[in-house]
Specification:
This protein is mostly beta strands. The protein is built from one helix and five strands.
Length: 57
Amino acid sequence: MKIGDIAKVDPKLTGLDFWAEGEVIDIEQNPFKGIVIAIRDHLGRIFFGEEKYFVAA
């Protein structure tokens, strides 16, 4: 996964009842959590968390 890709985020992370989809806007290596991904959906909401909560769309 890279910046600009489309990804879906797990409802366990967002608290929503569906997989939110958006564009990857940031990827960082966190020394405590590992790879952290951030996406922005079509409503402008930003979701970020550990890589395990994201899948490529």
